[in-house]
Design brief:
single chain, mainly alpha, Arc Repressor Mutant, subunit A, Tetracycline Repressor, domain 2, 2 domains, 66% helix, elongated, transcription, DNA-binding, Homeodomain-like_sf, HTH-type_TetR-like_transc_reg
Length: 214
């Protein structure tokens, strides 16, 4: 009798498992998990911008988290750097969009873009630092960032349309000037110059360097 009951019980369990779908762990991170990952990535960007050699323990401390919490979300440094790279690219894409490169004169558009990029703050620290952990040159240009810059420069050098960028300057020279001046502006901010002055000097220098009106 006991054997029969056991057999019936096993049969019932097997049948139940087949008929009733069992809950599976969700592959989608919870809101809390996403929030924690964002805290970690933000803390990592700030910390690594100041010190590219900062340890995971220092990043966890900057985010007011335990190291075990950090490791629950990122197994190692490489995995965290991958997430940082994606976040930096997202911020660059948003800044490029905010600059509205297609609006108004080309020189004004590049000026707006430089100021939008300047406000990326620690993200610039990551790409301009020695042994920088983030390299925008490795990003595919699916967001149109480099294409947008090149198109804007070309538009500005076309006298038939606007002609507000010196046509005698090679486009690559204009692009290099843009990044070099942005680096100088970021360095000035890092050394304590106030943002308003940095923005003014950046805009004035860029316009004088590549503009047609002097």
């Amino acid at each position: 009798m006991n054997v029969a009951k056991s057999y019936i019980g096993v049969l019932f369990c097997v049948s139940y498992d087949r008929l009733v779908p069992q809950s599976q762990p969700s592959a989608v991170p919870s809101t809390t998990a996403r929030r924690t990952r964002r805290v970690i990535v933000d803390a990592a960007i700030e910390t690594l911008a100041a010190d590219p050699a900062a340890t995971l323990a220092e990043i966890a401390e900057a985010g007011d988290l335990s190291r075990s919490t950090l490791h629950r979300h990122f197994a190692d440094r490489d995995e965290l750097l991958t997430a940082i790279d994606a976040e930096c690219r997202r911020r660059f894409t948003a800044a490029t969009s905010a600059a509205r490169l297609g609006d108004g004169g080309a020189l004004n558009a590049l000026d707006r873009l430089a100021l939008e990029y300047l406000d990326l703050g620690p993200v610039l620290g990551l790409i301009f630092a020695d042994n920088a952990p983030i390299d925008p040159d490795t990003w595919e240009d699916s967001d149109g960032r480099e294409q947008g810059l090149s198109t804007t420069i070309e538009r500005g050098q076309n006298s038939a349309t606007e002609g507000d960028i010196d046509p005698e300057l090679p486009p690559d020279w204009v692009l290099t000037t843009f990044w070099v001046l942005l680096f100088g502006a970021w360095l000035s901010l890092k050394n304590g110059m106030n943002r308003r002055d940095v923005a003014t000097y950046l805009s004035r220098t860029f316009r004088k360097a590549v503009g047609t009106a002097h």
